[in-house]
């Protein structure tokens, strides 16, 4: 009984040691083959481990200039509608005045053309600089970008 117990104990020790070596080698990013020779009890074992570790982080792409959001109609001072074109479904648009104060946040429900309706207070806040305003666009899988629009009198 003692002999069987010592065989089992030796086998467990060898497998554990081989697994620890293989895990350490895999953490370093390579393939590992941990072979152990015969021990005092005459048991030999080999453990081969390999892994293909892929990084899940993807870098966000920049939206090409041709595909960025643009004004469909020129924005006139104190107008209560901002008409944007080339918007993509699921993106989030933030209208800001030249002082970088957020005027309105909009989530795009449908790709194409988008009309953003403003209250009188929001229109007045958007026109604080009297020359321009900005739209920040955040899309999934892309870097957030900002487009500057001029205000016509």
Contiguous low-pLDDT stretches (5 residues minimum) are 31-36
CATH topology of the largest domain: Immunoglobulin-like
What share of residues are in beta strands?
35-45%
Largest sheet: 5 strands, mixed
The top level CATH class name of the largest domain: Mainly Beta
Mean pLDDT: 80
How does this model look, in words?
This protein has 153 residues and is of the alpha+beta class. The protein starts with a helix and ends with a strand. It has two domains: 2-49, no CATH class; 65-152, Immunoglobulin-like (Sandwich), CATH 2.60.40. Strands 4-10-9-6-7 form a five-stranded mixed beta sheet, covered by helices on one side. Residues 31-36 have low confidence and may be disordered. It has helices at residues 2-27, 120-126, and strands at 32-36, 45-49, 70-71, 75-76, 81-87, 92-97, 102-107, 112-117, 132-138, 145-152. Helices cover 22% and strands 35% of the residues. The longest helix has 26 residues, at 2-27. Keywords: Signal. This is Bacterial Ig domain-containing protein. Residues 1-27 form the signal peptide.
Entry keywords:
Bacterial Ig domain-containing protein, Immunoglobulin-like, alpha+beta, rod-shaped, 153 residues, three-stranded antiparallel β-sheet
Layout of secondary structure:
Elements: H1 2-27, E1 32-36, E2 45-49, E3 70-71, E4 75-76, E5 81-87, E6 92-97, E7 102-107, E8 112-117, H2 120-126, E9 132-138, E10 145-152
Parallel strand pairs: 4-10
Antiparallel strand pairs: 1-2, 3-5, 5-8, 6-7, 6-9, 9-10
Brief description of this entry?
It comes from Levilactobacillus spicheri. The chain has helices at residues 2-27, 120-126, and strands spanning 32-36, 45-49, 70-71, 75-76, 81-87, 92-97, 102-107, 112-117, 132-138, 145-152.
